[in-house]
Predict the 3D structure of the following.
Amino acid sequence: MKLYTYFRSSAAYRVRIALNLKGIAHEMSAVNLLKAEQTSEQYTNKNSQGLLPALETEQGVLAQSLAILEWLEETHTETPLLPSDAWQKAQVRSFCYAIACDIHPIDNLRVLKYLSSELNVDDEQKNAWYRHWVIEGFKKIENLITGDKFCFGDKPTLADACLIPQVFNALRFNVDMSQFPKIDAVYKHCNTVQAFIDAAPENQFDAA
Ligand SMILES: N[C@@H](CCC(=O)N[C@@H](CS)C(=O)NCC(=O)O)C(=O)O
Protein backbone atom coordinates (compact mmCIF):
# COMPACT_ATOMS: atom_id res chain seq x y z
CA MET A 1 0.00 0.00 0.00
CA LYS A 2 1.12 3.52 -0.68
CA LEU A 3 -0.22 6.56 1.14
CA TYR A 4 -0.13 9.90 -0.65
CA THR A 5 0.51 12.31 2.15
CA TYR A 6 1.86 15.70 3.17
CA PHE A 7 3.31 16.13 6.63
CA ARG A 8 0.88 18.93 7.55
CA SER A 9 -2.22 17.46 5.92
CA SER A 10 -4.53 16.70 8.80
CA ALA A 11 -6.67 14.36 6.72
CA ALA A 12 -3.54 12.36 5.80
CA TYR A 13 -2.47 12.49 9.47
CA ARG A 14 -5.74 10.66 10.38
CA VAL A 15 -4.81 7.82 8.06
CA ARG A 16 -1.18 7.73 9.23
CA ILE A 17 -2.43 7.24 12.80
CA ALA A 18 -4.75 4.38 11.80
CA LEU A 19 -2.08 2.64 9.70
CA ASN A 20 0.32 2.82 12.64
CA LEU A 21 -2.24 1.70 15.24
CA LYS A 22 -3.11 -1.28 13.05
CA GLY A 23 0.54 -2.01 12.26
CA ILE A 24 -0.08 -2.06 8.50
CA ALA A 25 3.05 -1.95 6.37
CA HIS A 26 2.94 0.89 3.84
CA GLU A 27 5.02 3.24 1.77
CA MET A 28 4.48 6.96 1.65
CA SER A 29 4.72 9.39 -1.21
CA ALA A 30 4.79 13.12 -0.53
CA VAL A 31 2.50 15.51 -2.39
CA ASN A 32 3.50 19.05 -1.46
CA LEU A 33 0.38 21.14 -0.82
CA LEU A 34 2.32 24.39 -0.67
CA LYS A 35 3.59 23.71 -4.19
CA ALA A 36 0.00 22.76 -5.22
CA GLU A 37 1.22 19.31 -6.28
CA GLN A 38 -2.26 17.95 -5.43
CA THR A 39 -3.49 19.67 -8.59
CA SER A 40 -0.74 18.24 -10.82
CA GLU A 41 -1.72 15.90 -13.62
CA GLN A 42 0.57 13.28 -12.16
CA TYR A 43 -1.47 13.25 -8.93
CA THR A 44 -4.96 13.85 -10.33
CA ASN A 45 -4.40 10.91 -12.66
CA LYS A 46 -4.28 8.85 -9.46
CA ASN A 47 -6.86 10.77 -7.41
CA SER A 48 -9.21 12.83 -9.53
CA GLN A 49 -10.48 14.60 -6.38
CA GLY A 50 -7.09 16.33 -6.19
CA LEU A 51 -6.91 16.26 -2.40
CA LEU A 52 -4.89 14.44 0.21
CA PRO A 53 -4.84 11.73 1.32
CA ALA A 54 -5.20 8.91 -1.15
CA LEU A 55 -4.32 5.30 -0.56
CA GLU A 56 -3.02 3.16 -3.40
CA THR A 57 -4.05 -0.44 -2.86
CA GLU A 58 -3.98 -3.62 -4.93
CA GLN A 59 -7.55 -2.80 -5.94
CA GLY A 60 -6.95 0.80 -6.95
CA VAL A 61 -6.62 4.25 -5.43
CA LEU A 62 -9.01 5.25 -2.66
CA ALA A 63 -9.65 8.91 -1.78
CA GLN A 64 -11.37 10.52 1.25
CA SER A 65 -9.82 9.87 4.63
CA LEU A 66 -12.98 8.54 6.30
CA ALA A 67 -13.57 6.06 3.48
CA ILE A 68 -9.94 4.97 3.81
CA LEU A 69 -10.28 4.57 7.59
CA GLU A 70 -13.43 2.50 7.19
CA TRP A 71 -11.85 0.35 4.47
CA LEU A 72 -8.79 -0.29 6.64
CA GLU A 73 -11.11 -1.16 9.51
CA GLU A 74 -13.00 -3.70 7.41
CA THR A 75 -9.96 -5.26 5.78
CA HIS A 76 -7.62 -5.32 8.81
CA THR A 77 -9.75 -6.52 11.66
CA GLU A 78 -6.96 -7.14 14.14
CA THR A 79 -6.64 -4.01 16.37
CA PRO A 80 -10.16 -2.71 15.73
CA LEU A 81 -10.60 1.05 15.86
CA LEU A 82 -14.38 0.94 16.09
CA PRO A 83 -16.31 -0.62 18.99
CA SER A 84 -18.28 -3.77 18.16
CA ASP A 85 -21.53 -2.50 19.71
CA ALA A 86 -23.63 -0.76 17.04
CA TRP A 87 -24.62 2.18 19.25
CA GLN A 88 -21.06 2.82 20.47
CA LYS A 89 -19.79 2.50 16.92
CA ALA A 90 -22.29 5.15 15.83
CA GLN A 91 -21.07 7.45 18.65
CA VAL A 92 -17.51 7.19 17.36
CA ARG A 93 -18.61 7.85 13.79
CA SER A 94 -20.73 10.81 14.86
CA PHE A 95 -17.68 12.30 16.60
CA CYS A 96 -15.51 11.71 13.51
CA TYR A 97 -18.06 13.37 11.22
CA ALA A 98 -18.31 16.41 13.51
CA ILE A 99 -14.60 16.95 12.84
CA ALA A 100 -14.25 15.76 9.27
CA CYS A 101 -17.53 17.15 7.90
CA ASP A 102 -18.23 20.20 10.06
CA ILE A 103 -14.89 21.60 11.30
CA HIS A 104 -12.21 20.65 8.80
CA PRO A 105 -13.81 21.66 5.45
CA ILE A 106 -14.35 25.33 6.28
CA ASP A 107 -10.78 25.73 7.51
CA ASN A 108 -9.14 23.93 4.64
CA LEU A 109 -6.25 25.26 2.58
CA ARG A 110 -8.36 26.08 -0.48
CA VAL A 111 -10.91 27.95 1.65
CA LEU A 112 -8.17 29.97 3.38
CA LYS A 113 -6.54 30.67 0.00
CA TYR A 114 -9.85 31.91 -1.40
CA LEU A 115 -10.34 34.22 1.58
CA SER A 116 -6.89 35.74 0.98
CA SER A 117 -6.70 35.85 -2.79
CA GLU A 118 -10.31 36.50 -3.85
CA LEU A 119 -11.86 38.26 -0.89
CA ASN A 120 -8.73 40.20 0.11
CA VAL A 121 -8.97 39.07 3.71
CA ASP A 122 -5.73 39.88 5.56
CA ASP A 123 -3.76 37.30 7.56
CA GLU A 124 -5.13 38.43 10.89
CA GLN A 125 -8.74 38.10 9.70
CA LYS A 126 -7.97 34.75 8.08
CA ASN A 127 -6.50 33.43 11.32
CA ALA A 128 -9.54 34.76 13.23
CA TRP A 129 -11.78 32.85 10.79
CA TYR A 130 -9.79 29.68 11.44
CA ARG A 131 -9.88 30.03 15.21
CA HIS A 132 -13.58 30.91 15.24
CA TRP A 133 -14.70 27.78 13.40
CA VAL A 134 -12.38 25.45 15.29
CA ILE A 135 -13.53 26.84 18.64
CA GLU A 136 -17.21 26.57 17.62
CA GLY A 137 -16.61 22.99 16.51
CA PHE A 138 -14.66 21.98 19.62
CA LYS A 139 -17.40 23.41 21.84
CA LYS A 140 -19.79 20.95 20.23
CA ILE A 141 -17.63 17.87 20.77
CA GLU A 142 -15.90 18.58 24.11
CA ASN A 143 -18.68 17.02 26.15
CA LEU A 144 -19.02 13.99 23.91
CA ILE A 145 -15.69 12.69 25.19
CA THR A 146 -16.17 10.04 27.85
CA GLY A 147 -12.57 8.85 28.36
CA ASP A 148 -9.61 10.63 29.91
CA LYS A 149 -6.94 8.96 27.77
CA PHE A 150 -8.82 8.38 24.55
CA CYS A 151 -12.11 9.88 23.38
CA PHE A 152 -14.12 6.74 24.07
CA GLY A 153 -13.06 3.97 26.44
CA ASP A 154 -9.54 2.91 27.22
CA LYS A 155 -8.42 2.12 23.67
CA PRO A 156 -7.85 4.38 20.67
CA THR A 157 -10.61 4.59 18.09
CA LEU A 158 -11.16 6.44 14.84
CA ALA A 159 -12.38 9.35 16.98
CA ASP A 160 -8.83 9.84 18.28
CA ALA A 161 -7.42 9.48 14.76
CA CYS A 162 -9.65 12.39 13.70
CA LEU A 163 -9.29 14.53 16.83
CA ILE A 164 -5.51 14.65 17.24
CA PRO A 165 -4.78 16.16 13.78
CA GLN A 166 -7.51 18.76 14.29
CA VAL A 167 -6.00 19.80 17.64
CA PHE A 168 -2.55 19.94 16.03
CA ASN A 169 -3.99 22.40 13.50
CA ALA A 170 -5.79 24.39 16.19
CA LEU A 171 -2.52 24.83 18.07
CA ARG A 172 -0.83 26.07 14.89
CA PHE A 173 -3.44 28.81 14.85
CA ASN A 174 -2.95 29.55 18.57
CA VAL A 175 -6.30 28.26 19.79
CA ASP A 176 -6.24 28.28 23.59
CA MET A 177 -6.88 24.63 24.42
CA SER A 178 -7.35 25.26 28.16
CA GLN A 179 -11.03 25.99 27.35
CA PHE A 180 -11.38 22.35 26.20
CA PRO A 181 -9.96 20.29 29.08
CA LYS A 182 -11.29 16.93 27.84
CA ILE A 183 -9.98 17.38 24.32
CA ASP A 184 -6.69 18.67 25.69
CA ALA A 185 -6.27 15.65 28.02
CA VAL A 186 -6.89 13.21 25.15
CA TYR A 187 -4.48 15.13 22.90
CA LYS A 188 -1.76 15.03 25.54
CA HIS A 189 -2.24 11.34 26.24
CA CYS A 190 -2.35 10.29 22.58
CA ASN A 191 0.90 12.12 22.01
CA THR A 192 2.58 9.69 24.41
CA VAL A 193 1.49 6.70 22.28
CA GLN A 194 4.06 5.59 19.68
CA ALA A 195 1.58 5.17 16.81
CA PHE A 196 0.47 8.79 17.24
CA ILE A 197 4.04 10.05 17.72
CA ASP A 198 5.16 8.34 14.50
CA ALA A 199 2.24 9.89 12.62
CA ALA A 200 2.90 13.43 13.85
CA PRO A 201 3.76 16.05 11.22
CA GLU A 202 7.17 16.84 12.70
CA ASN A 203 8.17 13.16 12.42
CA GLN A 204 7.36 12.75 8.72
CA PHE A 205 10.02 12.17 6.09
CA ASP A 206 8.78 15.23 4.19
CA ALA A 207 8.62 17.56 7.19
CA ALA A 208 10.00 20.96 6.26
N1 LIG B 1 -12.81 15.24 3.01
C1 LIG B 1 -11.48 15.04 2.56
C2 LIG B 1 -10.69 16.31 2.74
C3 LIG B 1 -9.40 16.24 2.01
C4 LIG B 1 -8.67 17.56 2.09
O1 LIG B 1 -9.28 18.62 1.98
N2 LIG B 1 -7.34 17.45 2.23
C5 LIG B 1 -6.56 18.65 2.29
C6 LIG B 1 -5.33 18.44 3.14
S1 LIG B 1 -5.76 18.17 4.83
C7 LIG B 1 -6.11 19.04 0.92
O2 LIG B 1 -5.74 18.18 0.12
N3 LIG B 1 -6.12 20.33 0.66
C8 LIG B 1 -5.69 20.86 -0.60
C9 LIG B 1 -6.50 22.03 -0.99
O3 LIG B 1 -7.31 22.53 -0.19
O4 LIG B 1 -6.32 22.45 -2.12
C10 LIG B 1 -10.83 13.87 3.33
O5 LIG B 1 -11.22 13.66 4.47
O6 LIG B 1 -9.96 13.19 2.78
Summary: The radius of gyration is 17 Å. The pocket of glutathione is lined by residues 9-11, 33, 38, 51-53, 64-66, 100, 108-110 (CB under 6 Å). The beta strands are 2-5, 27-30, 54-57, 60-63.
